[in-house]
Every structure is written in C-alpha cells, then in structure tokens.
Amino acid sequence: xxxxxxTMPYGGWILQRLLYIISIIVICYVFxxxxxxxxxxxxSAVSDPDSHRPxxDSHRPxxDSxxxxxxxxxxxxxxxxxVIPPSDPMELWVPLLEPEDVQERFKERNKVVKDLxxxxxxxxxxxxxxYYFPNLRATWIPVFGADSALWKKFFINQYAxxxxxxxxxxxxxxxxxxxxxxxxxxxxxxxRKSRHFTKEPDEVVRFTVIRHPLSRLxxxxxxxxxERGELAALKDQWVRPSILLGRNDPNWADxxxxxxxxxxxxxxxxxxxxEQSPNNPLLSPxxxxxxxxxxxxxxxxxxxxxxxxxxxxxxxWLDICQNDIDIxxxxxxxxxxxxxxLEKLHITSHEDYFLLADRADGINIEDYMGQLSKQDxxxxxxxxxxxxxxxxxx
Length: 394
Description:
Distance between the termini: 78 Å
Structural class: alpha/beta
Low-confidence stretches: 1-8, 34-94
Largest sheet: 5 strands, mixed
Radius of gyration: 33 Å
Number of helices: 17
Shape: flat
Mean pLDDT: 79
Order of helices and strands: HHHHEEHEEEEHHHHHHHEHHHHH
C-alpha cells in the first residue's frame, strides 16, 4: 500500500493521512467501548461479589415474593386516590393547603372547584336537590351523612308546617317539599350562576356541608349495626343484597338455598332469631367488606343501587360543576366555618344549636379500610376519586 501511495501525486499523500486518522479514531472508539465494559464488570463485582456466582442467592426464589395470597392481600390502610393514567387532564393537579382565614378558605375551595371542573369539561349529572328559603335568601343543598339531619331539623322548626308532616315522623324531609327547587325549572345562563331556577333570585347564597366520603359511607354502614330496626328499613336497599352477594354458596342445593333466603327475610323482619336456625350462615348483619363489595359490584354493572343518596359521591349529588355553590363547609372544620356561614345567613343567634350538636361518631377510617381486599380498596377509592380531588380529601 505504501508503494501505491508513493506513485500517487500530492492528492495521494492527503488520502494517506486521512486513512491514518480514521484508523486511529476507530481504534480509540473500540478501546473506550471495551474499557467501559471492563469497568462495569469490576464495579458490579466489587458492589456485589456474589452476583456473578452461579450458586448465589440471587438465583434463588425470593421468599417475600412467594407469599401466599392471604398475605399479599394485606395492604396499607391509608386511603388515597388511585393513580390516574397520563392521558387524564387532571394528572398534574396538586391540591394546595387551605388558607387559615375562613373567608379565603371558602374562596379557595370555589377556585379549586372551578379549575377542576374546567379540566373535566364540567360534567353534568342533572341533579338539583336544592331547597330555597325566601326568608333567608339562601339555598341549602343537603349532603346525607354530613350534618344534613341537623340542618333539616332546623329548617323544619323554622319554616315547615307540622300539619303537612307524616304521622309519627316530625323530621321527614318531605315537610320541606314546597321549598325544593325542581330541576325542570332550570333556566340556563340567565344570571351570575350557570344554572338558574325560576323561583330562586340571582343574589341567593347557595351553601352545603360536606364530609369525607369514606366517613359518610361508614356512618351509613353502621346504622343496622347500632340499631336493629335499621335492618328492615334498609333491607332492599343494600342489607339483603350485600349478604346474598357475600355469602351465597354455589354448592347449595336449590331447596336449601331457597330455605336459607326465606329465613333471611324472616330474620331481617324480626320474625326469626339466629338460634332458631343455627346452620343458616345468612342470619347476621352485613360486614363492611360485604357492603363495599355490593357497592363496587353494582357500580361495575351500572346498577343504580350503587348510587344511593347516603353514599353517592358528593360531587355527583351536588352536581358540583353545574350548580355554582357559594359556600362549601367541611364537616371536619365546623367549629371555624359554621360561624362564618351563619353570619352570612344572618342567623348567628342559632350558633349554639349548630356548634354544640353531638358530632362524635368515633369513626376510624383506617380500621375499616384495613378490612378490605386490595382490589376492593382500589375500587372504592376509584368510586370516590372525584370527591378526593375536588374537595381535597385524602
């Protein structure tokens, strides 16, 4: 090759130098690649000397990863919203800490509602569930399980005619039916609120009291546990379906199944005791896992029973993106927030009635959530996902 270059003119000399340079570059590149591989091997061997041995523990099954299913179902009892897919527009939403000042706190909640509703393109659940009281120039939206009984009793005592009530039921919400705003009277975009009702003036104050969705759920679940009469009252809503879904055995003969379910009806109605049929596994109140399983199963099937008013997601019940609520009070912060609401409504003389009410329920959310399987915990959190995000609950 050298002889060939020697016979070339000046251009051949240049080509010779270029080939030398290219050869040096290739040699350096190969050397660097081998050097990195060698240093990687040395570093790995130093940090974990057993990792390259064929009989190392790294080649044995991990004892923790081979736990039985019963142990794998033990999960953290801290409820939190499920992970949202990256395509979700709310993925980057991080709720801020609420201000100490109550007025600013109300404003911040409304801002959060507006921002998230804009992200979700303002879903419409076609709900009103609103009671307008002309004397107060206020509209109340009850959330069951969040001081609703307290406010209902107050409004009945102030404005309802006892003669229109049902016998033996002086606190029935039906006593306030004449104050209910009918959804059919909605007038879109006629005032400062996007959803306006014909009987409701534009300057009205709309308010509600909300509560952690799982606290509401647990409070309702405990009713038949604490009061025997609630079993019959809630029989068809969820008590009987929860028991049957959780305890039916496919191995039962048709005749035995029919007998057990008939006895279940008698027991719920108070006509049979478990001692009279000790072999019937259906004759006890639903457990919390059975109750939750009923809800998530109904929700998966699109069954309306999953959306009972006593545990339906608050954001849906309030139709939060459509009804423009002015003041959202949190049950967990009534001591600081109720006085501000009462001042806005000009009924501060009733402050003791609201602040001295017994709200002690002794509910520990973690204890109840810890009873659920991982799958059901994820599903019930997904059921309330919008509530967690829009109201800042964890």
